[in-house]
């Protein structure tokens, strides 16, 4: 293929993706709306894309930029002078490392446990699975969505190696009572990690205008580590996150070395060995370009945009905000006349992507919105689309799963299914054509309705089965672009 043909194929493959700029995608991507920052980020990505963070003696520029970013984040998050940190590939890796480091700091504990609110990010479950740590889930307040510090304290025992708080939690955008949780952890001699992947680059600026913003940072004595994503409200390209520890001693179990083979001695600060310097360089460049005053202005835009959304939903006949969001995220629940899964489809049909969240415990299914700076100028347009989508969804009526299917799903053990049984179940859920070939309708309400009535373990099994099938390669000549997918 010629370079132009390759470019055409890339454009064809990209055509069905959600837009990453323009403020219409209210999940997955975060857009500053600053064209100059986007251009500079792409330039830095290209310039450093071939560098490798594996060996800082080979690419000292990457080490220098990494330490600049760590120092900048430590200042924002009130870290003491001895604060150390590492750049990771994203929030999930930062959370994985926080759990791994806590586990390895306590070799005396045979069955290490992780105490976390039920609203904590799913990456903690992944970390527990990967590292053999027992997750201990503590119910959050069913009205506010915040962790209950006293219940968290009661869950701490001799096996606990880490206690978690969120700033904010992803599902409902609320900041947990970090001070109380960290105080209990410190009294028990246990590490406390604050997941500020969402809020870590917002809360410091919001707190300047409003000292009443809940405490979350290293100013809280019991907080031992904090994660913050630069590719969220630092508005840098994917994927750059930071994991900060209060001291080098606390971080030390995170570091890995192996000389037990004939090759080079492996020495890593993160789970990765080879790491492209492109995202790191882009993050360094963009944080320098936007600067402190720029981030303060962007944070104020997001704060005001969130307030506009909350006020608009407050007068809605069918929608309500779950909890009282503290930063940039909010979850919308609906009355019986409105189905949030259908609402999500209607919004997408109007050019706006909002993320459906399935029901969980005391919380109903919700529509999740992430507000970034680029969305704020378009909020009047979004609210018009939201009103029209609500009207259309109410007129269409709720999308529900067949009661008979719901009863079957409630009794089904996913471990008892073979591949043929999974294919049949995926077809019933609308995720397969019945022969094992994956299918995904353009309107997802019916699929989400089935998933919503399925028990958690079956939801996971269904989606893993779908992911297994959709991620198998199509062995046609030329690949996915040539096949017209």
TrEMBL record:
<keyword id="KW-0663">Pyridoxal phosphate</keyword>
<dbReference type="InterPro" id="IPR015421">
    <property type="entry name" value="PyrdxlP-dep_Trfase_major"/>
</dbReference>
<dbReference type="InterPro" id="IPR002129">
    <property type="entry name" value="PyrdxlP-dep_de-COase"/>
</dbReference>
<dbReference type="InterPro" id="IPR015422">
    <property type="entry name" value="PyrdxlP-dep_Trfase_small"/>
</dbReference>
<dbReference type="InterPro" id="IPR015424">
    <property type="entry name" value="PyrdxlP-dep_Trfase"/>
</dbReference>
<dbReference type="Pfam" id="PF00282">
    <property type="entry name" value="Pyridoxal_deC"/>
</dbReference>
<comment type="similarity">
    <text>Belongs to the group II decarboxylase family. Sphingosine-1-phosphate lyase subfamily.</text>
</comment>
<dbReference type="InterPro" id="IPR050477">
    <property type="entry name" value="GrpII_AminoAcid_Decarb"/>
</dbReference>
<protein>
    <submittedName>
        <fullName>Glutamate/tyrosine decarboxylase-like PLP-dependent enzyme</fullName>
    </submittedName>
</protein>
<keyword id="KW-0456">Lyase</keyword>
């Amino acid at each position: 293929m010629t370079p132009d043909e390759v470019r055409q194929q890339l454009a064809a493959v990209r055509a069905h993706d959600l837009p990453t700029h323009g403020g219409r995608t209210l999940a997955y991507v975060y857009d500053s709306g600053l064209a100059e920052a986007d251009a500079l980020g792409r330039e830095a990505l290209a310039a450093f894309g071939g560098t490798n963070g594996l060996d800082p003696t080979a690419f000292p520029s990457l080490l220098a930029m990494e330490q600049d970013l760590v120092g900048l984040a430590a200042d924002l998050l009130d870290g003491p002078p001895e604060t150390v940190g590492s750049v990771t590939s994203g929030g999930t890796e930062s959370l994985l490392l926080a759990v791994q480091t806590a586990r390895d700091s306590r070799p005396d504990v045979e069955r290490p446990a992780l105490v976390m609110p039920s609203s904590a990010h799913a990456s903690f479950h992944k970390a527990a699975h990967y590292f053999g740590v027992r997750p201990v889930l503590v119910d959050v307040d069913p009205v506010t969505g915040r962790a209950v510090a006293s219940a968290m304290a009661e869950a701490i025992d001799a096996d606990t190696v880490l206690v978690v708080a969120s700033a904010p939690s992803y599902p409902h955008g609320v900041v947990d009572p970090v001070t109380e949780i960290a105080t209990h952890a410190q009294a028990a001699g246990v590490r406390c990690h604050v997941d500020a992947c969402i809020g870590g680059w917002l809360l410091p600026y919001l707190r300047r205008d409003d000292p009443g913003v809940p405490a979350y940072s290293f100013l809280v004595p019991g907080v031992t580590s904090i994660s913050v994503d630069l590719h969220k409200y630092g508005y840098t390209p994917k994927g750059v996150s930071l994991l900060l520890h209060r001291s080098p001693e606390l971080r030390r179990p995170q570091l890995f070395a192996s000389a037990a083979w004939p090759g080079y001695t492996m020495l890593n600060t993160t789970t990765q060995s080879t790491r492209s310097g492109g995202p790191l360089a882009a993050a360094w460049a963009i944080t320098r370009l936007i600067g402190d005053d720029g981030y303060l202005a962007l944070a104020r835009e997001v704060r005001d945009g969130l307030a506009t959304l909350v006020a608009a939903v407050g007068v809605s006949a069918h929608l309500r905000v779950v909890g009282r969001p503290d930063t940039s995220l909010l979850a919308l629940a609906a009355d019986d006349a409105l189905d949030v899964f259908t609402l999500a489809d209607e919004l997408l049909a109007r050019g706006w992507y909002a993320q459906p969240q399935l029901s969980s415990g005391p919380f109903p299914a919700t529509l999740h919105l992430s507000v970034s700076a680029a969305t704020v100028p378009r909020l009047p347009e979004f609210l018009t689309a939201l009103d029209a989508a609500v009207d259309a969804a109410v007129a269409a009526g709720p999308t529900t799963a067949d009661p008979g299917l719901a009863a079957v799903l409630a009794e089904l053990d996913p471990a008892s299914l073979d591949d043929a049984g999974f294919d049949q179940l995926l077809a019933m859920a609308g995720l397969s054509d019945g022969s094992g070939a994956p299918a995904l309708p353009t309107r997802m309400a019916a699929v989400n309705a089935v998933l919503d009535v399925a028990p958690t373990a079956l939801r996971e099994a269904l989606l893993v089965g779908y992911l297994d099938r959709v991620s198998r390669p199509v062995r046609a000549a030329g690949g996915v672009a040539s096949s017209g997918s």
